[in-house]
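G., before I forget:
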Amino acid sequence: MSWTAILVLGVGAYLLKLVGVFIGNRLPDGPLHDAVRLLPPALFCALIALQTFERDQELVLDARAVGLAVAIIATVRKVPFLGVLVLATVATAVTRLLIG
Amino acid sequence: MVLALAVGLVGIPFGVLATTAGLSFAKAMVMSLLVFTGASQFAAVGVLDAGGSPFSAVGSALLLGARNTLYGIRLSSLLAPLGLRRLPAAQLVIDESTAMSVAQTDDRCALEAFWWTGLGVYLFWNSGTALGAWLGDLIGEPETWGLDAAFPASFVALVGTQLTDQPARVAAIAGVAIALVAVPFSPPGLPILLAAFAVVPGLGVLKRVADR
């Protein structure tokens, strides 16, 4: 990721915040509001799926799926954030070690 | 302050993941300092690690950053008296500072909560990133350590609190479906941007619930 991309992202992210602060109450409620609220679950879950099952523009099943399963179980059981990451990482590493 | 520390701990894995995805220590740091939005940052490095282009990384990160605009709108009247100091204050508009601020009962506490939470998180998030990025540089091949699974795992942990209602769950499932279907047919990075359309069925569910 080039410096340009990072700077564009940084400025863009800041402007998004600034616009909200200044535009104040002039933006009506309704569909736009709801759409933005729904973006995180949609994008996050899409990312999860892609990061687990995609490799070089193909769908594959590998050790990452084990990591995902562990992550889901840990999150459901309310394990703290770092714990979820560690468990998933270890599970994937071990699976790879055993299966290759 | 405890919240700030907790967020800072999340900054550590970001630093690690950022360097794993190929960013230098400096780039990871600048990202945390400028972007200062966890979800966006994790998304950006996640897309990069999965082979997406910087364009889609920035695109998905900005899509996720759009909710900060809503927060800004929500905090607008509270921050209005600050005048020009709103310019630096805006940088601190994130999930946590907004949440702590709107939980207060009067404006003075709300403003204090905003500043304390915002500044605290800024300090700890960036410290966490520095520590994580430094650690990340020391690690060798990420796959042997299973670190490539840490990316989706981080999102599983983050998404847990968001799937609380039907529209959100519908949007989530639609997002997964769109993204996976798109993989064989599109260049890297496009599937994640297409997944943004998943809000449409989510909105549909929302409307049906509201109409009842």
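Chain B has a mean pLDDT of 81. The first helix of chain B runs from residue 2 to 20.

More on Monday.
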